[in-house]
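Researcher: We plan to redesign the surface later, but first we want a full-length starting point. Tokens attached.
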């Protein structure tokens, strides 16, 4: 925010890293500025640019699953393996004073589940430090998300899983969609066909492709040829979910999700 707010005041369009801030209260002043200056903010949730998830969004929007009932999502990775060339204990993800913790560091599913499933009405969460990692933040989170359309999602995040796992399954009245970050493909099973369809990612796709596509999109935003597909309001809604996860874990009860203040 120390960089983004002055940039917005200088009429700069902004590509803003996620999460936007440590807490919602820190991020809201940026919205106050952008409401006055009308600059555009692209919240940097790069999984919005993953071709497998884009295909899932398309399948859901066309009603291939019927009424969506639930989703199960898991993302676990071994924190010391993220940047093996540096001491994992010194990075922001491992330190409470730098806004670390698995919920903030791996908050992408909180964004893409809302993008795919719809607006959230409440969350209930358990977070803990379970492993032997030398960190002072949570390395384990289990989050139950209730959506306004009455579907639910179970989301698990951790810092200790070896090998890594990042998967998604969405179940509806007419079938199932699955996704695995290992190969990136979306897989659709429909009760009408009783068979699987596989939607592979392009042969040239790799992890960096998402960042390149995100940057190309941002350049088009700067040129005022389009608007952000993951806006500041999207980023604020994810920030609100992050805050609600911590509040729910502290209170040991569900926490309702409000609206982004106007």
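Model: Full-length starting sequence:
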């Amino acid at each position: 925010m120390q960089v983004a707010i002055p940039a917005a005041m200088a009429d700069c369009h902004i590509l803003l890293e996620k999460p936007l801030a440590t807490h919602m209260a820190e991020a809201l002043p940026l919205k106050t500025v952008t409401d006055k200056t009308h600059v555009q903010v692209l919240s940097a949730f790069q999984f919005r640019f993953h071709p497998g998830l884009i295909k899932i969004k398309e399948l859901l929007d066309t009603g291939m699953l019927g009424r969506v009932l639930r989703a199960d999502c898991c993302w676990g990775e071994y924190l010391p393996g993220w940047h093996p060339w540096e001491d994992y204990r010194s990075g922001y993800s491992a330190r409470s004073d730098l806004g670390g913790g698995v919920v903030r560091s791996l908050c992408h599913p909180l964004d893409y589940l809302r993008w795919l499933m719809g607006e959230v009405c409440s969350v209930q969460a358990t977070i803990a430090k379970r492993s032997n990692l030398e960190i002072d933040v949570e390395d384990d989170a289990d989050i139950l998300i209730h959506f306004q359309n009455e579907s639910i999602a179970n989301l698990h995040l951790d810092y200790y899983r070896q090998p890594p796992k990042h998967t998604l399954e969405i179940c509806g009245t007419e079938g199932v969609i699955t996704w695995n970050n290992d190969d990136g493909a979306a897989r659709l099973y429909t009760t009408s066909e009783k068979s699987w369809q596989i939607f592979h990612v392009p042969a040239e796709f790799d992890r960096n492709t998402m960042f390149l596509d995100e940057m190309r999109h941002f350049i088009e935003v700067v040129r005022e040829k389009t608007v952000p597909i993951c806006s500041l309001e999207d980023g604020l809604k994810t920030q609100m979910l992050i805050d609600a996860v911590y509040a729910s874990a502290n209170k040991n009860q569900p926490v309702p999700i409000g609206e982004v203040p106007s």
